[in-house]
Amino acid sequence: MADPPLRCGTFLQSFKNDTADSIFRQRAFRERKERHVKDLEAKLSALESSATLLATDNQRLKLALQRATNENEILRQQTSRNRSLSIPSPANSSPSNWSTDVDTRHSTPSPHGPSRAESEGRLLPASATWDLIQSHPLVRQGHVDIADVCERLRHATRCDDSGPVFAEREVRSAVEESRRGGGDELI
Q1: Cα–Cα distance between 25 and 185 in angstroms, integer?
Q2: Cβ(146)–Cβ(183) under 8 Å?
Q3: Per-residue pLDDT tens for 128-157?
């Protein structure tokens, strides 16, 4: 008769061990769940801040695009007004027919040689300069980085009574120096 109390004690001991294991497993599960929730909250916070930055950048880029679009429209209107004033362009005349903005009426030979403007050829207004760039064979073939041409010409800009002008030789040189191999990578 001594056997039944032992079995009961073994069963009781086994039940206590199972209960302790169950409690331990539940505690470990809750800790893993809490860590997982904290990790998810951290990821959510990072994604929210990233989304905020992207939205801000998107808004900034939209404004820059709108400014560029407005500037482009203004330049188109100015160009169309200038063409209506019969400013020659490569589309309707050859570069040899373009008028110069160099006043030669009062020019006297300099003892130091020709002036910078005389040595660089005709001075072209901005619209004729753009037409010359666009009609250049290298540009038409897509071998020229227009942004680079503009950057090169930024330092060659002069002013006269009608606005900015560029020496024809400098324009051609800027286009030829901006030649790229392989065309435009963005297209």
Answers
A1: 59
A2: no
A3: 888 888 888 888 888 888 888 888 888 888
Q: Which helix (H) or strand (E) holds 23?
A: helix 3-84
12-37 exposure pattern, b = at least 16 Cβ within 10 A, e = fewer = eeeeeeeeeeeeeeeeeeeeeeeeee
In terms of residues, how long is the chain?
187
- Classify 127 as helix, strand or coil: helix
> How far is Cα 7 from Cα 161, in angstroms, rounded to an integer?
114
pLDDT class of 83 with cuts at 50, 70, 90 = low
Q: CB-based burial of residue 103 (10 Å sphere; 0-12 exposed, 13-18 middle, 19+ buried)?
A: exposed
pTM exceeds 0.70 for this model: no
